[in-house]
Specification:
The complex is a heterotrimer. By secondary structure, chain B is of the alpha/beta class. Chain B has 5 helices and 11 strands, in the order βαββαβαββββαβββα. Chain C has one domain: Mth169, Chain: A (2-Layer Sandwich). Classes of the chains: A alpha+beta, B alpha/beta, C alpha+beta. Chain A: Monomer. Part of the FGAM synthase complex composed of 1 PurL, 1 PurQ and 2 PurS subunits.
Chain lengths: 743, 224, 84
């Protein structure tokens, strides 16, 4: 067949052309990096090789700029079976089972092609999970959009929601939660962060390593086309508001194909796990990244025969084959002589499963095409982008800010509550989440709308709680405290369901790191996350960095996303946010503070955020959280809800929504404070017969505010004002506002 | 009693159905849609939900040519219980085992929710264990709008083939149809998912009596 | 070798929700004179056949067997001889 085809590489620039025209700069390599390649190879790299380095040395693949910060993450404790550096991290959950999870950003592809960008984001993160040998059990999406009133935002929301639904529903993994926020900072640069969670029998654990000379490199799944070439470099450059020129870098997903690949990969690992040495998804920078990383991790070399790669289009060049980001493809390293039985599993599902190369001793990474060697580079060099140490400078806005608090106008408290419930950040997202299948696989105990989603582990008494949290307004005002707060908030969400937080993943969404102020924000927020992660014993086991989230030179707010997983040892401990019966007592756990800087109320009243945040007493927060967890585990709480945006008043409203109950409470604080925001506050309801035990456990950390009533009325009396409104009226605002604003 | 769940490429509620059948004593097994084996040993055959063949072309249009469908046709003709849920319903209409067609929801988009169903035929093979007038059952579909011409709809009504109706018409179905049987009453298709409503832990058990009804029906027929 | 171009649309009486959504979107974009939008499916099928008549018979047969659902859809097509 190949004899009939003219050499597709004839029109490629020569190595000398590449050097003279500095073509490599268009692909993101700096002159210094190029010179280093020339020096190391002791010759000029050809077109294919230059392409390999530009992809592998992009920030997206190499993390060369963020690594100095990422290296500081605390990622080891007694549960960690696999930390960062693999497809996903893994934590021991007992009974020889493990939970596998990771989050990934798909911001840039979603900005240009919202449907496919979001859909392939789901597909990619799921492959990271099942490449470890795990069965994916849930997906969460953390979505940040711009101004809700703008047509551009509405187009993005429609596309992203449809893309997540189109892919996740079809593959049959429930979309159980996440978050959706609206803020003008994301107007031209929406964030689509997707987290996936899987369940693993530890005996099936596989990692992406190409060990053992002579073992086969098996390509499985979809064919390779020209889609998504240079997606990795595309993700690592700033955006120009002229989107159209980037369109070809977006891939198209096929959830049906992925379902077949997922089921066959899991089956192959379960049935022939001993024959399978390593598994890796072909993600960013497709074939080169997956194979080179696997070889490098094992300290081995590799040869690939590119004519064997299943191709969708004619006349593809080695450059295109190596850099294509066609979706739904995996690499398996299979023991020599055991290929047929593994291939059989894939072939039975009508999938490609082709040996395209072998693992070799030494560190040569060699590509053959039409019987010629078209690339030959040291694999350890290819996977080690030169480190970059970037300077940090504290932004001027942070130098000037003080913790003096914004003073809100709460002369009409009931009206303020109603307005807050209508804010797109707070209002119910049910009308959009309805498009996601949250109950397929019949394991979903707590569906979207709770503080965290809860998925039971079938056949055991265990369940897993999971959440994603972002609070970029706080991170913008104080990156360190914002990082601490995001962690505490995530932990509160997990604990409110009655689970113990056991680990986190993250997506770090920032602007251009070459800007010292942005690098400062990155380093500081990571430090804040890290401090709390260590303190509450939740190691950082996986994650992802998305930089250059800027359009025309304006960066988004620094936006670290924390994805946290918690463990329920008994499904009896699972607690939900809704009030359960009248006469139950309502408690505030934690302390109200008059903090309004960065609050939803400040944003609502002045259209902006400003000021510094009050310092967080992490030890106190941890103590309170532990007590709430104990109360849930002793089954002393009827309902439990984290207090977040909009403060106590909004949280208490949410406890009543979806029920026929009301509440009558007295708060010994100014009325303004019921809308204030501070970490580590819960609103908890307790049955009358359990109040004594609950109060004994909580001691001074809980204050009884009042009772759940049968009258359907929300009555809150503070020292200088009160809220009084029918719950039904508040609820209709809460339920309908998002739809109204999106139309 | 023995039952079987047919797995099509792209089925994704196959395991959910299997567990529901197992928990409620219908002794399920799996069979691949690519199999051309006989289904003689089974008393009830379940076509689960999902996206067979990616829902490409039309929902159910490609799956209905699967090798197993010949045996499903035979079993239906023999009067055995054949149930299609969601995508399974779509496959049954495409294959002509049930009349009409499932089309895109009136307001385009996937709906995942729980919805009230009116039990329109209390004595059917699939509802005889229910005492309630209405049940709450999960739905999860984008192409669930039941369509048939006026004559067919009249016949369905006249011959008591409409087993479930939506209390509120959430997808624009003709006559609020959520589930129908064939004329003989042994083949049922429905869009809602009773298999997602069989466990207290998951918050809804209204689907249990669906499976208990089938158990009772098979018992009355005499077990193999 | 023959190339058939087959267009599938809903029968006029059947609701086409996508067409309706596209119509209102066009209205929002100020294309107020749009009165109707029909969204259909388009297939290109290359096949060998003994002659044009044979090709037409094959196409009609495959359209009715698989490409359309006769309850709700209708189709028309063109066919021409092309280079293999």
């Amino acid at each position: 067949m190949r004899e009939n085809v003219a050499n597709p590489m004839v029109n490629e620039p020569t190595p000398a052309d590449i050097q003279t025209t500095q073509l490599y700069e268009q692909w993101g390599l700096t002159p210094a990096e190029y010179d280093l390649i020339v020096e190391k190879l002791d010759r000029l790299p050809n077109y294919t090789e230059t392409g390999l380095f530009s992809a592998m040395w992009s920030e997206h693949c190499s993390y060369k700029k963020s690594k100095p910060v990422l290296r500081t993450f605390w990622s080891k404790n007694e549960r960690v079976l696999q930390g960062p550096g693999e497809g996903a991290g893994i934590l021991d959950i007992g009974d020889d089972q493990a939970v596998v999870f990771k989050a990934e950003s798909h911001n840039h592809p979603s900005a240009v092609e919202p449907y496919e960008g979001a859909a392939t984001g789901v597909g990619g993160i799921l492959r990271d999970i099942f490449s470890m040998g795990a069965q994916p059990i849930a997906v969460l999406d953390s979505l940040q959009f711009g101004d809700i009133q703008s047509k551009q935002t509405q187009r993005l929301v429609d596309g992203v929601v449809a893309g997540i639904a189109g892919y996740g529903n079809a593959i049959g993994i429930p979309t159980v939660g996440g978050a959706m926020n609206f803020d003008a900072t994301y107007q031209h640069n929406p964030l689509v962060n997707v987290m996936a969670v899987g369940l693993l029998d530890q005996k099936h654990l596989h990692v992406g390593k190409a060990e053992g000379a002579g073992n086969s490199v098996l390509y499985v799944g979809a064919t390779t086309g020209r889609d998504g070439i240079h997606g990795a470099t595309f993700a690592s450059v700033e955006f120009d508001s002229n989107e159209d020129q980037n369109r070809s870098a977006v891939q198209v997903g096929d959830p049906f194909m992925e379902k077949l690949v997922m089921d066959a990969t899991i089956r192959a690992i379960r049935e022939f796990g001993d024959s399978i040495i390593g598994v890796q998804d072909m993600g960013a920078a497709g074939l080169v990244s997956s194979t080179a990383e696997m070889a490098d991790k094992a300290g081995m070399g590799m040869t690939l025969d590119l004519n064997q790669v299943p191709q969708r289009e004619a006349h593809m060049t080695p450059y295109e084959l190596m850099l294509s980001e066609s979706q739904e493809r995996m690499i398996l390293i299979v023991k020599k002589g055991h290929e047929a039985q593994v291939q059989q599993v894939f072939n039975e599902a009508d999938l490609n499963a082709v040996v395209i190369g072998e693992v070799v001793a030494g560190l040569d990474y060699q590509l053959r095409f039409n019987d010629e060697i078209v690339a030959d580079v040291p694999v350890d060099f290819l996977t080690s982008a030169p480190k970059v140490n970037l300077p940090q400078v504290k932004p001027a806005r942070l130098e000037q800010a003080t913790t003096e608090q914004y003073q809100p106008d709460v002369s009409q408290p009931t009206q303020v509550l109603t307005q807050l419930l209508a804010q797109p950040t707070i209002a119910s997202k049910a009308s959009l989440y309805r498009h996601f299948d949250s109950s397929v696989r019949t394991d979903t105990v707590v569906k979207p709308g709770g503080d965290a989603a809860v998925i039971r582990v079938r056949g055991t008494q265990k369940a897993l709680a999971m959440t994603t949290d972002i609070n970029s307004r706080y991170t913008y005002l104080n990156p360190y405290i914002g990082g601490q707060w995001a962690m505490l908030e995530a932990a509160q969400n997990i604990i409110a369901t009655g689970a113990e937080p056991i680990g986190i993943t993250d997506c770090l969404n920032f602007g251009n790191p070459d800007d010292p102020e942005i690098y400062f924000e990155l380093a500081q927020s990571v430090a804040g996350i890290n401090e709390v992660a260590q303190k509450i014993n939740t190691p950082v086991i996986s994650g992802n960095v998305s930089l250059n989230n800027e359009t025309d030179g304006t960066a988004i707010y620094p936006t670290p996303m924390v994805g946290m997983v918690g463990l329920h040892t008994q499904t009896d401990h699972i607690t939900t946010i809704k009030a359960k019966s009248a006469q139950d007592a309502i408690y505030l756990v934690g302390q109200l503070q008059g903090q309004f800087n960065g609050s939803e109320l400040q944003h609502m009243q002045i259209g902006a955020i400003s000021g510094d945040l009050l310092p967080i007493d992490v030890d106190y927060a941890q103590g309170v959280q532990q007590k709430v967890l104990q109360a849930a585990q002793q089954q002393l709480v009827a309902s439990s809800h984290d207090i977040a945006e909009g403060g106590l008043a909004v949280a208490l409203s949410e406890v009543l929504f979806g029920t026929t109950f009301g509440a009558t409470v007295n708060v010994d604080a100014p009325i303004e404070w019921v809308f204030a925001e501070a970490p580590t506050q819960f609103v908890v309801t307790v049955k009358p017969e359990q109040q004594a035990d609950f109060e004994k456990l909580m001691s001074t950390d809980a204050v009884k505010l009042g009772d759940i009533t049968n009258d359907g009325q929300f009555k809150l009396i503070a020292t200088n004002g009160q809220i009084d409104a029918p719950v039904a009226t508040l609820e209709s605002v809460y339920k309908d506002s998002l739809c109204q604003q999106l139309q | 009693m023995k039952s079987v769940v047919v797995r099509f490429p792209g089925s994704n509620c196959d395991e959910d159905m299997y567990y529901a059948l197992k928990d409620l004593g219908l002794a399920p097994e799996f069979i691949s849609a690519q199999s051309d084996a006989s289904l003689d040993e089974y008393d009830a055959i379940f076509l689960p939900g999902g996206f067979s063949y990616g829902d490409y072309l039309r929902t159910g249009a490609i799956a209905r040519f699967s090798p197993i469908m010949a045996a499903v046709q035979t079993a239906a003709a023999q009067g055995k219980i054949v149930v299609g849920i969601c995508n399974g319903f779509q496959i049954l209409t495409e294959s002509g085992l049930l009349p009409g067609q499932l089309m895109m929801n009136e307001v385009p988009g996937f709906i995942c929710d729980e919805t009230e169903l009116v039990i329109n035929q209390k004595t059917s093979a699939f509802t005889n264990a229910y005492t309630a007038e209405q049940i709450l059952v999960p739905v999860a579909h984008a192409d669930g709008r039941y369509y048939a011409d006026a004559e067919t709809l009249q016949r369905l009504e006249d011959q008591n083939q409409i087993v479930f109706k939506y209390a509120e018409n959430l997808n624009g179905s003709e006559n609020r149809i959520a589930g129908i049987t064939n004329e003989q009453g042994n083949v049922l298709g429905m869009m809602p998912h009773p298999e997602r409503a069989v466990e207290t832990l998951l918050g809804n058990t209204d689907g249990q009596n669906f499976f208990k009804s089938i158990l009772a029906t098979v018992a009355a027929q005499g077990v193999n | 070798m023959y190339l058939a171009k087959i267009k599938v649309t809903y029968k006029p009486s059947v609701l086409d929700p996508q067409g309706e959504v596209i119509k209102s979107a066009l209205h929002r974009l100020d294309y107020e004179t749009v009165e109707q939008v029909v969204q259909g499916k388009y297939f290109e099928v290359k096949l060998t056949a003994s002659d044009l008549e044979d090709a037409k018979q094959l196409i009609e047969s495959m359209a009715e067997a698989l490409l359309i659902n006769q309850n709700t859809e209708t189709y028309d097509y063109t066919v021409e001889e092309v280079e293999g």
